[in-house]
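Researcher: Sequence of HTH-type transcriptional regulator HexR follows. Predict its structure.
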Amino acid sequence: MERVRNLLEQIQNRLEELNKAERKVAEAILRDPQQATRFSIAALAQAAKVSEPTVNRFCRSFNVSGYPELKMQLAQSLASGAAYVSRAVEADDSPEAYTRKIFGSTIASLDSACQSLDPQVISRAVDLLIQARQIHFFGLGASAPVALDAQHKFFRFNLAVSAHADVLMQRMLASVAHTGDLFVIISYTGRTRELVDVAKLARENGASVLGLTAAGSPLAKVCTLSLDIPLPEDTDIYMPMTSRIIQLTVLDVLATGVTLRRGVDFQPHLRKVKESLVPTRYQADEDLG
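Model: Prediction complete. Tokens:
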């Protein structure tokens, strides 16, 4: 299985150095490896909008004898499951082993993210949040529930807050943005075209854009300010795990910054929100019999 997993990682890691035609093949495979195992060489060529000889050249460039072998390796990878869960996990890991590995990987990734975040950039991000007239949190895929979590946190600060995971709604909101609006765009890779387009559109209309994304990514480059999130896992291959936890933790940091910046005078408002939930819960010592 190690060879299979390495093949997928090599395809992703070499994207930038592939020529234009071969990169189209790589992107078609990474977009849906399972579908690639069902494609004929003609179907993959059509999906990638290249010729069949280009697909064969792509195979040889990765030391694969031909497309049939490539399909076999992809099928083996999918069958094992582990290659799409986490880099740390092996197909034959016991429950004890993979539990320990996932927790250990998450803790290490959080520590790495903490060390890499710039406190001055955190402070500037809190400034944008405090000054905003209204805040829109955008995310797609695995980042969508992170945006919703942000909405749950930040509405408590008596701000107009929304969260959206629909590209069309994101575009419409960006098209009617104004100065004073803040768009917080959450994207682990920062390479999702739709989110980059939305960020550009929002800024063209005078809004500020705060990115929670990878340093130097296309999204980071078009944001007003970007909080650079480390890349501990390759989400083009593996299931998003630690990336989501890091995003949630960074949002907790920002929420804490806003709370502290608001000062003690804002505490009664937060207490009122908490007290509103008391009637909805059974008390710990309440007899349910």
